[in-house]
Design a protein that fits this description.
about 750 residues, alpha+beta, Aldehyde Oxidoreductase, domain 4, 3 domains, five-stranded mixed beta sheet, 17 helices, globular
């Protein structure tokens, strides 16, 4: 009698790391110590823009307990960067670097020196004793002014301080505007956002038992960290090891380097363990943020609700280094017309250098800022047309075979119409013979409180875009005699709190046909794995799942041929993508997408300006829910993080310096702020090339919330607010300007 097959996909199995994290037994980088370790502190820049003339370390070195002070001259190849190596590891004279003017600091988060001492307190004291002489240079803090011809150039070879400029030229704009009977224009502003992960930057550098310089740290891609360390130190990659223990959140904030290279440098030079832990203040001051973006938009539609023309300009502040900004702005350029099929489009998108804090990857990767503008325009068009917001979207939404703004069809598996319809029907709308109708909303008895509802949609890439090389490796080992007794899975994808490792094991168990308990995962260590790529771009389930399935098929074939143990390695490569054409933007930008729609109810205090998010209905196509509880967790987490972005989180930067680097002054949502209800509506329309049909979804619940809240505020008060966050002072000012509320 044949055994029933084991089913893992679609089961809400308990997370692998649940018990250890709940009990506090799981170690994070700050929890790990090695015998004889020293301590590190970093001396950051005192200027937003200046040449470092000299660094006098004598007083610091004379402090008892100081072991070594490193400066730019100590770094063999003093450069790093995820997309382009355009940033010095340390800024100062004597640098061996291809970076232009590596002796300059270009923002307050630039590193000038690194102190290693016997204790953390001594290292901190010594860092303050380093005397640095600067030759001040004119700074640029306004991204709009930065583009003026007479403003100082922050980087060589970038006229008007433009890092990147993307164009989209689709259709015939003259004909489009002639067809347009209703035109809506708007200007939208989004601010910085701090990642606010629970675990600040920390790490431990040491020499392992095989003589490799090793860094134990939290990140998002062990093999990319390895490459950047090996490049900066001039070492072969196999002489550098990167290990991730537990990671206390990331959200894109750990894609770029923080302490990795300087820890490796110190461990290599001193041949002993070196540890560093950043304070929360250091974490907020010295890692990158979400891009502030301005979008100027002009949309035209016919009276029956067909969008026929879109023009727009997008400008993003990238700080003084690329990080991933060229990719983030590319993604904003793609998504700023929303998930709609529009025949005539004219866009210009710019990433602009300033002397502000660098900006980079953050959940959504440019799409939340773009969606804020696109969905704002859609909701204003619906008002101008006197049309229901769901009805207008249904008439324009992308579908199977739709042509994107870049002139090529979407990959198969487009489910945006179904997602929109489900969101509407599960929230405040119903459909009858007259089309979509909104339900009535009961208002509070307090006359100062007004309630409203809003809706918005979003779409975003899964995986790397625009020709960036995409791959994922996995190895499966099958151990046993007559039956498979143990499965060893080697997959390096980072577990940053989202549950990816649990999903990896579920997929391996399903692919091999064994119980979940029989699979053992080896990951997070470059010594034992090949690259899986980063925990970003909503890609890990999709990419690692396909690699795991390929490795399992090969291993099972070996097992069938009675090879014991059966060991197989597989590299998954998705369909190729292509970069923007520099003149027209034509491209095949992505191989898969995720689709989302959200409806919200808010309550606005028109006297105090306080916006309370009452409930959220989030409809998400996940292709196939590998672990439904983890999917629900991602939806709820994404909604609350987007709530912070939309309403609470106001990072204040004045002349390049962050003024509120504490969680007491930079406010994120707490349990007292979250909505009364987050209704997760999970749809499963299989992606044609996703593993078991799964498509990435972790970023999607973030995308439409801010514009949905903006629409709900307008519904409640009659006032459009086109800048986030919707802090009380901003809301009150907007209401008073329109004569709403009590003075």
């Amino acid at each position: 009698m044949s055994k029933e097959p084991f089913i893992s996909i679609g089961q809400s199995v308990k997370r692998l790391d649940a018990v250890g994290k709940v009990t506090g037994e799981t170690p994070y980088p700050a929890d790990i110590d090695l015998e004889g370790q020293l301590w590190m502190k970093i001396r950051f820049s005192d200027r937003a823009h200046a040449r470092v003339v000299s660094i006098d370390t004598r007083q610091a070195e004379s402090l008892p307990g100081v072991v070594r002070i490193f400066t730019a001259k100590d770094v063999p190849h003093n450069e790093y960067g995820l997309v382009t190596k355009d940033q010095p590891v340390m800024c100062g004279p004597g640098s061996n670097s291809q970076v232009d003017h590596a002796d300059r600091v270009r923002c307050y988060m630039d590193c000038v020196a690194v102190v290693v001492a016997e204790t953390e307190a001594i290292a901190a004291q010594a860092a303050k004793l380093i005397a640095i002489e600067y030759d001040d240079l004119p700074p640029v803090f306004d991204m709009h002014q930065a583009m003026s011809p007479d403003v100082p150039q922050i980087r060589e070879g970038n006229p008007q301080n433009v890092l990147c400029h993307y164009r989209i030229r689709k259709g015939d704009m003259t004909a489009g505007w002639e067809q347009a009977e209703i035109i809506v224009e708007g200007e939208y502003h989004t601010g910085y956002q701090e990642h606010a992960y629970l675990q600040p930057e920390a790490g431990l550098g040491f020499i392992d038992e095989q003589g490799r310089v090793s860094v134990l740290v939290a990140g998002q891609w062990v093999h990319e960290d390895q490459e950047q360390i090996s490049h900066a130190l001039g070492l072969p990659e196999d002489q550098v090891r990167v290990i991730y223990p537990a990671i206390g959140g990331a959200f894109g904030g750990r894609e770029d380097m923080s302490v990795q290279i300087v820890l490796a440098l110190a461990a290599l030079e001193l041949r002993c363990p070196v540890k560093v832990i950043w304070s929360r203040e250091e974490s907020i001051l010295y890692h990158h943020k979400r891009h502030p973006i301005t979008v100027r938009a002009k949309w035209g539609a016919t009276r029956d609700g067909k969008i026929v023309a879109v023009e727009g300009t997008i400008i993003g502040d990238v700080g003084p280094y690329n990080y991933t900004s060229s990719k983030v702005l590319g993604n904003a350029n793609l998504t700023v017309t929303g998930p709609y099929e529009i025949p005539n489009i004219h866009l210009d998108t710019y990433g602009v250098f300033t002397n502000n804090i660098p900006t980079g990857a953050f959940r959504g990767f440019g799409a939340p800022q773009a969606a804020f503008a696109a969905e704002g325009q859609m909701n204003k068009l619906a008002q101008a047309l006197g049309m229901d917001v769901v009805e207008l979207r249904e008439r324009n939404v992308i579908h199977e075979g739709s042509i994107l703004s870049v002139g090529t069809p979407l990959p198969k598996g487009v489910s945006m119409p179904e997602v929109l319809e489900k969101c509407a029907s599960e929230s405040f709308w119903h459909k009858n013979g007259q089309g979509w109708q909104r339900s009535s909303l009961e208002q509070p008895q307090n006359p100062a409180l007004r309630r409203g509802i809003g809706l918005a949609c979003g779409f975003k890439n899964i995986g790397y875009s625009f020709g960036f090389p995409e791959q994922s490796w996995a190895t499966i080992e099958l151990h046993g005699k007559a039956e498979i007794e143990e499965v060893v899975l080697r997959a390096a994808g980072a577990e940053v709190g989202q549950g990816s490792h649990t999903a990896f094991v579920q997929m391996a168990a399903e692919a091999v046909g064994v119980s979940f308990e029989k699979v053992r995962l080896i990951g997070h260590d470059t010594a034992f794995t090949k690259t899986s790529g980063s925990a970003s771009a909503s890609r890990l389930t999709f990419m690692a799942g396909n690699a795991i399935r390929g490795a399992a098929d090969k291993a099972l074939e070996q097992w069938k041929n009675e090879e014991r143990p059966a060991i197989a390695t597989y590299q998954y490569r998705p369909p190729k993508t292509t970069p923007y054409d520099p003149l027209t933007g034509r491209s095949e930008p992505n191989f898969a997408y995720g689709y989302v729609a959200q409806a919200v109810e808010v309550e606005v205090d028109i006297e105090l300006g306080h916006v309370r998010l009452v409930r959220v209905i989030s409809a998400n196509d996940v292709g196939r829910a590998v672990n439904p509880k983890l999917v629900q967790g991602q939806i709820e987490g994404g909604v609350v993080q987007a709530q912070g972005y939309a309403i609470l989180e106001n990072l204040i930067s004045v002349e390049g310096k962050i003024k509120n680097p504490y969680l007491s002054t930079y406010l994120i949502p707490t349990i007292l702020d979250i909505p009364e209800e987050v209704k997760s509506v999970v749809l499963e329309y299989p992606d044609p090339i996703g593993p078991w049909g799964a498509r990435g979804m972790a970023e999607m619940p973030f995308l439409p919330l801010a514009p949905a809240i903006a629409a709900a505020i307008h519904d409640a008060t009659g006032v459009w607010i086109d800048a986030i966050p919707f802090t009380p002072d901003r809301v009150v000012a907007a209401l008073r300007k329109q004569g709403v509320g009590v003075l």
